[in-house]
Amino acid sequence: MFRQVDYVTNKVITTNDIGLLINLDLVLQKLVDLVQFLNVPLIGMMRARCNLERVNLSFITSVFLASVAVLFISLEMPKVFARDRQIFKVKLGFMGTGLQKGSYETNRNVETPHINSQKTQYLDTISASHERANATFYTLCRNEELYQMLETVQNYEDRFNSKFKYDWVFLNDYPFTDEFKRVISNAVSGEAKFGQVPASHWRFPDHIDQQKVYELMDKMDSENTTGDYLGLPIPYAKSISYRHMCRYQSGFFYKHELLQGYKYFWRVEPDVRLYCDIDYDVFKSMEQNGKRYGFAISMMEFEKTIESLFKEVKNYLHMNGVSQLLNGTDNLSDFVYDELSDDYTLCHFWSNFEIGDLDFFRGREYNELFNYLDSKGGFYYERWGDAPIHSIAVSLFMQWDDIKWFSDIGYRHPPYLSCPLSEEVRLEKKCSCDPSQDFTMDAYSCTRFYQDIVKDKQKSQGGNF
Ligand SMILES: Nc1nc2c(ncn2[C@@H]2O[C@H](COP(=O)(O)OP(=O)(O)O)[C@@H](O)[C@H]2O)c(=O)[nH]1
Ligand SMILES: [Mg+2]
Predict the structure, then answer these.
(1) Residue 301 in contact with residue 346, Cβ under 8 Å?
(2) Active-site residues: which are they?
(3) Percent of the chain topping pLDDT 90
(4) CB proximity list for 420: less than 8 A, separation 6 or greater
(5) What is the C-alpha separation between 402 and 393, in angstroms, rounded?
(6) Residue nearest to atom 27 of ligand 1 (CA)
(7) d(CA 22, CA 26)
């Protein structure tokens, strides 16, 4: 039995969760409970129908368990087979809590990494009456997205920024229209700044074989008719601008002149939404707690879009004599690297919400990795996303407790939502999200897996929880 902290109520709860095996145990326990519940009528029926004096109870139990297992396996295994061993583990983690879904308000024991972390305190105790951090919101978007952007800016202002008045940097590969600048400036309580991406940062680099890019895009698009695992089509299979965008967000945004001078950024996209009031200065809390990267939602990447990415990451680490980072104890390598398969777990922090330390991205370590990966052409030939690039770098190069999961910020980027599960918290923070739609414990979320890793780190470092 371990003691855990419910991240929403901050209560310590004891739980049976020791990962894979115990989660399975929980499932089996539930089945056995069910069988016991059904025992009496079942035996009565069998005796009456078969005219038997004695029906072997263990035989009935076995038959029942076997049928449930067959049903479960036939429904779930096709999905599981499409994933690697790590994903299987996440899936089982989901099962363990999924069975308790009816009462998830009290039973879904999840632990937030900031609790009991050496560097941290409860973030919402930080008073608003203090100097702001050196920070800005950052958005890359198009003129056509003006009114989706306006909704989002207004929402971020209402929920957070009207209290703190941080600046907001907007970048675009085209010049922003006067209308865009007028309407958005009017909504931002800090200073709104509008810039254009340098053309040299938004084009095919010279080493890219464009003919090959188009051929591979066509191939990816045609395979899309059969779909990736689970039948999901690969988004943006045939989009060049999406590839430029992912490359820009991976290796260039932090070099833009409008972001120079800032230490932290909070990335926002059109059409995202905050669902709870944020009464503390999130940037300042990052600074005061020594955090360098924050996320709200994590999930698995479409494998077909990053087929050679991790091989290249490993090559890079090997060439630089730092392969041991893959097995680091101080970093969060377990989140991205699966030792058994010697491959990527597919887990990444969803980068449409990220609060990060710009100095990390401007630093030598990150840029050398980016330059190496860029030279391999995967942004175009495969459609590497910026989220796996950021996540792999953050997980390997940062300390594990530099990273923070913002579990208290209700956040949605369609189609996924992160919503605090505790009604107490939702009432206090005036959240307007539906907790039954929360994605955190979904099979394709990696946040449960992240929590398990953090829990192990805290335990091995003598954390008291
Ligand atoms: N200026 C500009 N912004 C883009 C372009 N493509 C995507 N973006 C922005 O990049 C971010 C991610 O793009 P989005 O379409 O939301 O991708 P998704 O979140 O992966 O579905 C959003 O903020 C978009 O507004 C583009 O061609 N030009
Ligand atoms: Mg988006």
Answers:
(1) yes
(2) 354
(3) 67
(4) 8, 276, 407, 408, 410, 426, 429, 431, 433, 435
(5) 13
(6) 241
(7) 6
- Asked whether the predicted pLDDT for residue 356 surpasses 50, the reply is yes
Residues lining ligand 1, Cβ inside 6 A: 139-142, 145, 172-173, 241-242, 245, 269-270, 352
Determine if the peptide bond prior to 414 is cis (ω within 30°).
no
For residue 352, give the ligand 1 atom closest to its CA: 19
- What pLDDT, on the 0 to 100 scale, is given for residue 405? 97
Residues 6+ apart with CB under 8 A from 377: 207, 208, 209
If one counts every other C-beta atom within 10 angstroms of the C-beta of residue 305, the result is: 20
Phi, psi (5° rounding) for residue 114? -75, -20
Q: Give 371 Cα–ligand 1 centroid separation in angstroms.
A: 22
In a 3-state reduction of DSSP, which class is residue 302? coil
CATH 3.90.550.10 fits 123-460, yes or no: yes
Predicted local distance difference test score (pLDDT) of residue 427: 97
Q: Quote the tokens at residue 244.
A: 């430029």
Q: Does the structure show a pLDDT above 70 at 350?
A: yes
Determine the residue type at 291: K
Burial class (CB in 10 A: 0-12, 13-18, 19+), 185: middle
Tell me the mean pLDDT in the region 50-74: 61
Of 31-40, 63-72, 177-186, the range with the lowest mean pLDDT is: 31-40
State the burial class of residue 388 (Cβ atoms within 10 Å of its Cβ: 0-12, 13-18, 19+).
buried
248-259 pLDDT, tens digit each: 999 999 999 999
The residue type of 184 is I
The DSSP secondary-structure symbol of 445 reads B
What distance in angstroms lies between residue 199's CA and the mean position of ligand 2's atoms?
A: 22
**Can you read off the two tokens belonging to residue 374?**
């860029």
Q: How far apart, in whole angstroms, are the C-alpha atoms of residue 202 and residue 208? A: 13
Range of lowest pLDDT (21-30, 113-122, 443-452): 113-122
Worst-scoring range by mean pLDDT, 63-72, 307-316, 405-414? 63-72
Q: What is the mean pLDDT of residues 48-71?
A: 61
How far apart, in whole angstroms, are the C-alpha atoms of residue 32 and residue 317? 48
Site to substitute for ligand 1 among 137, 139, 141, most atoms within 8 A of C-beta: 141
Question: Which has the closest alpha carbon to 170: 141, 144, 145?
Answer: 141
Q: Cα(358)–Cα(340) distance, rounded to whole angstroms?
A: 33
